[in-house]
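Quick one, T. Sequence first:
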Amino acid sequence: MSSSNIAFQTFSLANQISDVSPQDEIFAFDPEANKRILQQSPWEQDPHYFKTCKISAVALIKMVIHARSGVPHEIMGLMQGKVIGDSMVIVDSFALPVQGTETRVNAAGEANEYMVTYVQESEKVKRLENVVGWYHSHPGYGCWLSGIDVDTQMNNQRFQDPFVAVVIDPNRTISAGKVDIGAFRTYPKDYTPPNASTSEYQSIPLHKIEDFGVHANQYYPLDVEVFKSSLDNELLGLLWKKYWVNTLSQSPLISNRAYAVSQIADLHEKLSRAESTVSNTRPTIPALKGQEEKQGGKDEKKKEDSHLAKAVKDSQKIAIEAQHGLISQILKDIIFSSRPGEHLPQVSRVGEVVDAAMSIG
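Structure tokens:
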């Protein structure tokens, strides 16, 4: 098996890409069925109607390449697709000619003209799917919706629903080795969401935490699934044969070093803030029997939500990503720097290095 095939299979496994047939209904566009679902609009009665966002592997890679090309600035694009049941299916994506900053991106008149022209030209080549969502990047600060993103998505859902917002973090994608992506839908303005279940913890930079917390209850995430067909395999195979050498020769420790430095600086700020919340070492005054249970419950909750506990999770994440980068460098050095028949003493230590890195997680 060639190195390009191995690299492609590794990408598919890391991102849990499922195979579907080219003749599958997920690729067939039925104008009548699409018109019927738009007339019924079941999502207007149920704010939680959509549960899943299914994205084509080709569309996903186009979005990731676009997001990575814009670092350290944000980028923006649109997605074409349709609705199948309670899922939003993305079959293609295209970039918009917008100029973003490190914290925001807005579409101007030129981008709107480009969008209309692109959709019209797509119809001429039988790409009949509607624009059903937009995507943008958050370089280095996770997948969630800011206040501006929430307002943008609310307007999109108000005037051109069904619509979904997708966020990609290109920096964390490089560090983690798999695509860091999230899909979201906003609630109507007059809707009060039920108590949200505890979601998986994600590391948010200190200067973004306030914006993240203020708007966290105005939208909900969709499960993201990635699919591909045998025809997609051909396209992705050609892409991998062209770029696998560059991928193999690069190191995330070098190409993503600015992000790593910013993560360590952010961790330092969080630890400095957590220092003031750590209780002192003086002995506490014994509590009465009836008060012990209440006090214990409060202390336990404080421990779970403490700044220090979150800083520990962030430090573990940084250490794991650095260890993964070091492991890949060691393996590449052993594989490509050794000569046939030459005995390398460090080979026997590869298992030890891998075990040590895995124990951190």
